[in-house]
Write a structure and sequence with these properties.
Layout (H helix, E strand, L loop, with lengths): L2 H29 L6 E5 L7 E3 L2 E5 L3 H11 L3 E5 L2 H9 L5 E6 L3 H4 L2 E3 L4 E2 L4 E5 L10 H6 L4 E4 L6 H9 L4 E4 L3 H9 L5 E4 L1 H10 L1 H6 E5 L8 E7 L4 H11 L1
Parallel strand pairs: 1-4, 1-5, 9-10
Antiparallel strand pairs: 2-3, 5-13, 6-13, 7-13, 8-11, 8-12
């Protein structure tokens, strides 16, 4: 074999070896192995998120579409049970590779983090009220806000642009709670307030669990409730764009 032919053959072998070495790397990148793991933060809040003792992932209305998206996209992740207030701190502090499950999108949060494609869109917002409060089925948002009934809202929580604006303009008595929904319901039962905005899916579960609670509280619906907002994955800005883009492609 001539020297020239030997050189051509050697070059071809080297090129083939380089291609073979590149293929596993490309496959790893496609599967998400080249991306860092992200903590997926969820809370114990049925029926949206429900931990399963000894099992991962958790279950719930918001968890299920996210679980499918994570499995399909194969992005590395860890499920971490985390209270809601702690979730916000981790996402908005800029120090964690973390995404919080099921948060509504608004301008203030968009300035501090980034959002996934929609995960879940539930029923229109309603109100959970004491049965002895001056409230009735089919009231408008404004009528409820202008009633003498004492309103309870969750600190730092967004109920959507329409209701948030009415809450900001409210002149009547306003109580704020920092706990989870079960704690807010206890405040209503104890008479610290008369009503609170509520997601029907969630409070119906709570009323079914506690017959005594259902004797004190009932669910009422607004006549002009805005269309339900979508719940998203709310991610720290440190989460790589490629991680979120791959997940979004699977969610869509």
């Amino acid at each position: 074999m001539s020297v020239a032919r030997r050189l051509v053959l050697a070059a071809a072998l080297l090129a083939g070896a380089g291609l073979s070495a590149a293929q596993p790397a490309a496959s790893a990148a496609a599967s998400g192995d080249a991306l860092p793991p992200v903590d997926v933060l969820f809370q114990d809040r049925p029926p949206y998120y429900a931990p399963q003792p000894g099992k991962q992932p958790p279950e719930g209305l918001v968890i299920e579409p996210l679980r499918r998206g994570l499995e399909h996209s194969r992005v590395p992740h860890r499920w971490v049970l985390t209270p809601a207030v702690r979730q916000l701190l981790m996402v908005e502090s800029g120090q964690h590779l973390a995404c919080a499950v099921g948060w509504f999108r608004n301008p203030a949060r968009e300035a501090k983090g980034q959002f996934s494609a929609p995960l879940y869109r539930g029923q229109p917002l309603a109100m959970l009220a004491r049965r002895d409060a001056p409230l009735r089925e089919g009231m408008s948002l404004r009528e409820a806000m202008e009633s003498p009934a004492r309103l309870l809202v969750k600190q730092g929580y967004s109920y959507g642009p329409e209701l948030d604006a009415l809450i900001a303009m409210r002149t009547g008595e306003l109580a704020r709670g920092t706990g989870e929904v079960t704690q807010l319901l206890r405040m209503l039962q104890a008479g610290h307030a008369d009503w609170m905005p509520a997601s029907p899916e969630e409070v119906q579960v709570q009323l079914q669990r506690d017959g005594q609670r259902a004797q004190t509280l009932h669910l009422l619906h607004f006549s002009d409730a805005p269309p339900p907002q979508a719940r998203h994955l709310y991610c720290n800005k440190a989460v790589p764009a490629a991680w979120l883009e791959r997940l979004n492609a699977a969610l869509r």
